[in-house]
Amino acid sequence: MIAIRVDTLCGLGHFMRCKWLALALHEYGKEVVFLVDKAVPEHLSLECMNEIKILPYAQTHKEDAHNTLKALSEIQKQVESVIVDSYRFDSEWEVEVAKQIPSIIVVDDLERAHSAKLLIDSKWCGDKTGERYASLDNKLLGPDFAMLSPEYHDCSRRKREQNRVMFSLGGGGDWCIAADLIALLLSTAPEVEVDVIIGPMAEGVESLTQLANTTCRLQLVQQPATLAPYYQSCSLFVGALGTSLYELAATNTPALTFSIAPNQANQQGALDDLGHYFHVPDLLTRKASEVVALILTLVKQSKRIIKARETAPIKVDGRGAIRVAEMILANDIKSSVTQRTLHSQQTNIWQLTESVQIRQCNDSDINRYLAARNLPNNTWRMTITSDIDVLAHYQWWFSNSRESFVMEANGKPLLYVWHQIYNIESQDYLIGGWFAASGEVNFAHAQMVLEWQLGETAAKYPKAIWLAVINKENKFVNLLNQRAGFVSIEQDEKKMRATQQLFPKASLTEFNYVGKEVNT
């Protein structure tokens, strides 16, 4: 028999992932018993109802460990291993239980110290994933070991409904703030329908209930046994990150998420690897009208977002519980770390040297582009020196008509470069720019990208004139453009009019106004 000590005091996510693991263990003929803090809603525990025992509340780790061992001794069956999934218990608990049952298996995602035979952490932390829990010999790390319902095994596609938005805060959460957001969304966009998933521990549902009584476009779904059909049919998911991260990845669902718990803190680069591009931790504190506007933009761009998700380097196939069960039961436990898989979206790539290339930007660049643009060493050079807000950036990304590219060295971004064509007073003008994404950018890189850009635009826009404004303090770029043939246009009224129209925030006292014929 295998025992699972799972925390049910801080939501149901811990129990649910352990339930899927228990069902996988059942498939291999293993008996499982759950030890919980309080009763689990019946509809969520039907498959293992006879295997759940409630422990008394303990004041200390040691007391809970003793309660656990006492409950297991009363079962009168040999317990091979104890799996523990709780943020409340740490290595002190594990050491105490191991005095009688040496095989301790830990499920965690907070990178705490442990004393265990095996550790399972499905959190993806990019290149640092394999470095976590360095003191432990045996560990299963990354989304390959995300323990999801069998319904997420290689999810088949379902036809998504247009203009259908799904909201969820997980098993609990306070709906007060989100309810105002949903009300504004429904009043702003009469074409939108909303499904709200109400978890068993949810609070502040009264205002949602009142709102649902006034419109047929809002459906409140009370404690569904599974969310898979809702993920698969909606145009956009809006909600707390948590366990939904891997369910969203498994179903390729477009999503806008926020954080409501410490374990939902994630580095955006790691989320990008999963194809999860729109995470704003403080979304619920933002101006409601701006959030609703972004929701509507993402709904409109749903197909484009799905396409980006499908080419993400980290895939979730829903078989994590099976993999974990197999490893727990294996005679020889081996560590395993999830690896990226390359799914290229690229068609336009220019190889400049053996290690340096330029490629056209795609939607996977959306967050890296903003992070680079907002680097302090870049912002002071801009006509707009303040940071660009993430909500404004997302809106701009889907509406801009720039041609944007990234220069990479050995697959890592060095700098971003862009240009855009305008027609003013019957003349085509090109404007553009570049900004570093790495501290390794040098003069040779900048010269290389400028020469490439001038060559590409000369072929594509042979009659255009380049216009640029360069901060007078930016000696690096002033010299670079001077060498490339840019000259002052301050005596050319027509070009000055066009430049001031294109760069209204660039004052003559701070910026040099320069230009260049494309084919000169």
Automatic annotation (TrEMBL):
UniProt GO molecular function: hydrolase activity
Keyword Glycoprotein on entry: no
Active site: residue positions: H14
Keywords, sorted A to Z: Hydrolase
Binding locations of substrate: E247
NCBIfam families: PseG
Protein name listed in UniProt: UDP-2,4-diacetamido-2,4, 6-trideoxy-beta-L-altropyranose hydrolase
Gene behind this protein: pseG
